[in-house]
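Record 1 of the preview.
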Amino acid sequence: MTLRAIAKFTDTYPIARPLLNGGITVGSVWLCLLLLPLRLPGMELAGISPNWLLIWVVAWSVKRVVWQGAMAGLILGLLQDGMSSSHPTHALGLIVVGALTAKLQKQRYVQEDFISVALIVFLMAVVSETITALQFSVSGGRSLSDIWTYHQFIALSSAILSSLWAPVVYFPLNRWWETMGIAEQKQN
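->
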């Protein structure tokens, strides 16, 4: 079934649109949550894997307002904290990522092409990992030189892998949300 057929179906049965859209959105979050702990060949660099939830937050926030990006970051950050340790929290970094991504798009600094999305994800992965390193620094218990040396390695590895895998999440979701948006505009 093509996206046009789905849009036509949701035009015929308007109640199906929010249900289908919500199902796809929640399903994509769950898929990213399932991919998060996996270490498949070609998907890791020195033990670091792509930050799938960060990629999802960027994909969501690109065409949304700042508070929607921040809320997506909060929700996905809390889900990630539930899957792993909540100290330091992942929510803070993902909130900042969601808000900054929406703010960048509002300023029209970037296009919505492969390179722009990869660069946004690269930059946001560095920002997120820096926020995590700052939380480790504030909490103490480890030497600052160890934290910041390891931070450089993690931030660069995560940024490279996340930016390379970003189109796998971004483009299908973006296409879906555009199709649902067009279907919503037709009905109004």
